[in-house]
Amino acid sequence: MNASGTFGFGEEFAPFVDLNELGALVVKGLSWEPRQGNPPPRIIETVGGMLNAIGLENPGARAFIEEKLPFLRQYDVAVIANIFGETLDEYPRVAEALSRAGGIKAIEVNISCPNVKKGGIAFGADPDIAAEVTRQVKTATDMPVIVKLTPNVADITDVARSVEAAGADAVSLINTLTGMAIDVESRTPQIQNVTGGLSGPAIRPVALRMVWQTVKRVSIPVIGVGGIMRAEDALEFLIAGAKAVQIGTANFVNPQITLEVIAGIEGYLIRHRMDDIRDLIGSLIEPDSLEHPHEP
Amino acid sequence: MIRNLQVAPDHYLLELRLPAEFPCPEPGQFMMVRLRGRDEPFLSRPFSVHNFRMHRGSVSLEILYRVVGKGTLLFSRQSKGTILGILGPLGRPFRISSICPTVVLLSGGIGVAPLAYLAHRCRGRNAGGKRTSIIVYAGARNAQSIVGIKHFEAVDLRICTDDGSRGFHGPVTALFERDLCSYDPEKTMIYACGPPAMIGSLARILEATSFSCQVSMEERMACGVGACLGCVTAVKDNGGRIRYERVCREGPVFDIRDLAGLKTDPC
Fold this sequence. Notes:
Largest sheet of chain A: 7 strands, parallel
CATH topology of the largest domain in chain B: Rossmann fold
Helix content of chain B: 10-25%
Shape of chain A: globular
Strand content of chain A: 15-25%
CATH topology of chain A: TIM Barrel
Number of strands of chain A: 13
Distance between the termini of chain B: 36 Å
Strand content of chain B: 35-45%
Mean pLDDT of chain A: 94
Shape of chain B: globular
Order of helices and strands of chain A: EEEHEHEHHEHEEEEEHEHEHHH
Largest interface: A-B, 33 and 29 residues
Radius of gyration of chain A: 19 Å
Oligomer: heterodimer
Strand order of the largest sheet of chain A: 1-4-5-6-7-12-13
Distance between the termini of chain A: 47 Å
Number of domains of chain A: 1
Radius of gyration of chain B: 18 Å
CATH class of chain A: Alpha Beta
Number of helices of chain A: 10
CATH architecture of the largest domain in chain B: 3-Layer(aba) Sandwich
Number of strands of chain B: 18
CATH superfamily of chain A: Aldolase class I
Helix content of chain A: 25-40%
CATH architecture of chain A: Alpha-Beta Barrel
Largest sheet of chain B: 7 strands, mixed
Low-confidence stretches of chain B: none
Number of domains of chain B: 2
């Protein structure tokens, strides 16, 4: 599936991708009220990645239901609505409205956006608040609830365990790493928000490590996200134990990358004579020394 | 890549051969172009169409660009035979009026790139029962950095330089303002592309008039197809309320009267 915020509401990519072929489609983060987002410039490319501070620009949940969802209902693809709130109350309100709309299969809760002043990362960085958001959303919907986690914490597995205990059905990780870039000639920040979220291949090793650690500490499915540019990158996450993967920034480079990665994973399974992707998931062969240090 | 010629300091003319089925772009549309197989830079760069030709089953695209950062610097180092990734045509094109027989183009620096293709497509047209006449105000820092004017055939070309080394000494907007009363707002369509200060001055000049003016805007882009929301520019609606629109989808061509937050300092 794609990562939220990198695929619009699907219609932007319909000319390039048969949306029916995707495992799932995650829409841009939705709040209750429309949000204008941050002033430009909002993005800058950095080494092996990009910084963005979009500021969760979106038309609001109601406009999404009226104007964007009918298009997605034409497709036989699981639509996952990514939701966001500035306050604790906003999350369940958005979740409830989307659950009643019809045509949505799951909710992904964004408690990890680094680019907004209220909500976002402020909720995701604290295991107790993250759990409270999760509980509220679970109360508001019967749909599976995926909680998207921020890497900008001391130990992401603590937050993962906390939202699992609060009823999360899955976790997706990682959201962007907070970063910054300066134009030295003008001595001004490269993006208007000063700081932004780093995505792209540069963050993949960090994402992979966090997924690997989290898989060991929770029993709910973990969705791997972070800098996947090609099939072998996705395979890394699956081998580390992710049950599914999301592709984000790579969609900006090649709008057909999602399908190319799916085909690449299939090709790998055939080459390795695996009938079932479950044989691959979590199949990392770890050095013995990691679990059982050698006796002197 | 067929050629990648330096045409002035920091300015290059890139010509690409495209597959025969590549759709013909409208003036004002752009392409996302990338160097393949690299992790840096890995994002595409947006370029307007400077020229597009189809003959004998072969399609060629010209891109005129200025080196402004790492991406364009790497483009400038590529040579004939390099295979590039390309996505397009993208964005909303310039609207070509069927009632305005006078077309005025104002370019500042590399802003000439999309206007040359527009002039090419306007040439020989009839509008409002008359043959279209094209007046081009092309501005540059100095005589050396004037680029992209070779496609301006059969136009009234008025060159302006900041240092007076060629043509009018001063910004294109100053020369245009001096000529303004010679144009009929009902029969003239103005198109502009250039640095923010130039567009700001033009907006101020046109504010009290009824001229129509379309502006091609530039912003950093990641996807070019409307998903990343990285390329927004501020626009105002009828009530004066400010909102953001995507340069890649709602633009890159905007009505100058819709643009908000333009720089108004003299250029």
